[in-house]
TrEMBL record:
GN (gene name): phaZ
Gene3D superfamilies: 5' to 3' exonuclease, C-terminal subdomain, alpha/beta hydrolase
Annotated segments matching region Disordered: 408-431
Protein name as it appears in the record: Polyhydroxyalkanoate depolymerase
Limits of the PHB de-polymerase C-terminal domain: 206-407
Biased composition (Low complexity): 415-431
Length: 526
């Protein structure tokens, strides 16, 4: 019996069990039931919830990003589908405000490797305050009728090109994980055609550009098995009654099995801890588990032609780094790329995309000026930490935004940038704004003019590290022109008073010892 039919049969057979488990859980959680307040009752309810959750099919999650903060002000956010095709929608996260109208346009290309685009919720959430964000929302292949035709790697590249042309010039593209290869190929194709809508910059994060470098277990599997094994063992037809009935796919449940088998002990421990949190009435711990697995266990099917072509071209034949990748009968030549700046980001502990695989893009794009190429490796993070979590928010995203701002159309720097992380500004005299002496016109000279900046020098410091500075106040300071610890550390008494009056700080700058804190923090980042 084909895998897909067996999976559907098993899911249907477990439906009554799930219903009984859910009903039992509700019975033992009812506050009117005396056993609900005992350890026995909580244990039964916890066991039923674990059983129901590990046997259910998880639907596509929602992004749920209803608001963001722009220039220190909370504004509503709405999701609009602005470009659509049978296999993908492009979602625009529209910020309902006149603020930030000059923010850069960023197209975030989400992975089409099993999980939905909502896996990048944290990525989008951190970009929204600083950019006009668009995201590729790939559609589950089992929901696409066979009459809508095929979808392979060539189509993926064409989709990216079409979306970039839709968004127009001065767009920045960010490829997360698997899309790094088609994003790089799409930009190379656009450059070879002298397309005026070629993106101003591309950021490739944890992507398998050259899997010959530091191969991982994922890479070894593809090399060991060969493409014929994948054709025989993982490609099945979508069964009735799904809309994509009879379409050849690599099903999501097989992908999920592969994901979980790589760290099976960790997932078993997580579910054991979830059970114990429920018994102990630890709502926070249980809710974190639900949030993570609601996302992680929601998977989609991929078209067989796209999956097989990707495995063969990227993981077996290494077509892009070998210079043999073809797109619609034409060779993809990354050396054609000249106008698009390149940033690559890797995680030190990435066990899915090995260290150096993404950085390999720099050697391929040998005609991009050195001033427009940067590589950054984030210490102590794995694959998912590159685009989600605290390190993404505090370390990686600020660097990405700094790179994008530095390479906007008409604003590209002529200063050479090494392939190392951007260096934060220090309190050296040469780093401060240079102000010409004021003409003697009788007008009062603003004492803050010597310290305020129109934009950060390098990467902005995390001003929230100063006791008493929260996200809102940090945004207010940034809007006023303060981005670095050294600016605060070097404030004079006159400037402190002026800043206090200007931002209505009510003396908290001196009261909370900002100057002393900033001096220590400035030394730490120097």
């Amino acid at each position: 019996m084909p895998y897909y039919h067996l999976y559907e049969l098993n899911h249907a057979a477990m439906s009554p069990v799930r219903a009984i488990a859910d009903m039992t859980r509700l019975y033992f959680q009812n506050p009117l039931n005396p056993m609900a307040h005992t350890e026995y009752g909580r244990s039964v309810a916890a066991g039923c919830e674990v059983l129901e959750r590990v046997t259910r099919r998880y639907s596509k999650p929602a992004f749920g990003l209803k608001e963001t903060t722009v220039s220190g002000v909370k504004v509503p956010v709405t999701e609009d589908i602005v470009w659509s095709s049978p296999f993908c929608n492009m979602i625009h996260f529209d910020r309902d405000t006149d603020r930030g109208k000059d923010d850069p346009k960023i197209l975030v290309v989400a992975p089409m490797s099993g999980h939905y685009a909502t896996l990048l919720r944290g990525t989008v959430e951190e970009l929204l305050p600083r950019a006009d964000v668009y995201v590729t929302d790939w559609i589950d292949a089992r929901m696409v009728p066979l009459s809508d035709g095929k979808f392979d790697l060539d189509d993926y590249i064409d989709y990216i090109i079409s979306m970039l042309q839709f968004l127009g010039p001065d767009t920045h593209v960010l490829g997360v994980c698997q899309p790094s290869v088609p994003v790089l190929a799409a930009v190379a194709v656009m450059e070879s055609r002298d397309d005026p809508d070629v993106p101003a910059s591309m950021t490739l994060m944890g992507g398998p550009i050259d899997t010959r470098v530091a191969p991982t277990a994922v890479n070894d599997l593809a090399m060991d098995k060969g493409i014929e094994w994948f054709k025989r063992n993982v490609v099945v037809k979508v069964p009735f009654p799904h809309a994509g009935c009879m379409r050849d796919v690599y099903p999501g449940f097989l992908q999920l099995t592969g994901f979980m088998s790589m760290n099976l002990d960790r997932h078993m421990t997580a579910h054991k801890d979830f059970f114990q949190d429920l018994v102990k009435n630890d709502g926070d711990g249980a809710e974190k588990h639900r949030d993570f697995y609601d996302e992680y266990l929601a998977v989609m099917d991929l078209t067989a032609e796209f999956y097989l072509q990707t495995v063969e071209a990227v993981f077996i034949e290494h077509s892009l780094p070998m210079g043999t990748l073809m797109h619609d009968g034409t060779l993809v030549d990354c050396s054609k790329i000249r106008r698009t700046a390149l940033l690559t980001v890797e995680g030190e502990k990435d066990d899915i995309t090995g260290r150096g695989q993404t950085k390999a893009a720099h050697a391929l794009c040998n005609n991009i000026p050195d001033a427009m190429k940067v590589h950054y490796e984030q210490p102590n993070v794995g694959h998912y930490g590159v685009f989600n979590g605290s390190r993404w928010r505090s370390e990686i995203c600020p660097r990405v935004m700094d790179f994008i701002q530095s390479n906007r159309a008409g604003k590209k720097s002529s200063t050479a940038k090494p392939e190392t992380p951007p260096v934060k500004a220090t309190p050296e005299p040469a780093a401060k704004a240079v102000v010409k002496p004021a003409a003697k016109t009788g007008k009062k000279v603003d004492p803050l003019a010597k310290i305020l900046l129109s934009s950060p020098r390098g990467v902005s410091d995390d001003l929230k590290a100063i006791n008493g500075v929260g996200p809102k106040l940090e945004a207010t300071l940034n809007e006023a022109g303060i981005f670095h610890f050294w600016q605060i550390a070097s404030l004079t008494a006159e400037q402190i008073q002026e800043l206090d009056d200007k931002l209505n700080l009510r003396g908290r700058l001196l009261r909370n010892g900002w100057i002393e804190q900033a001096q220590k923090l400035s030394e730490a980042v120097s």
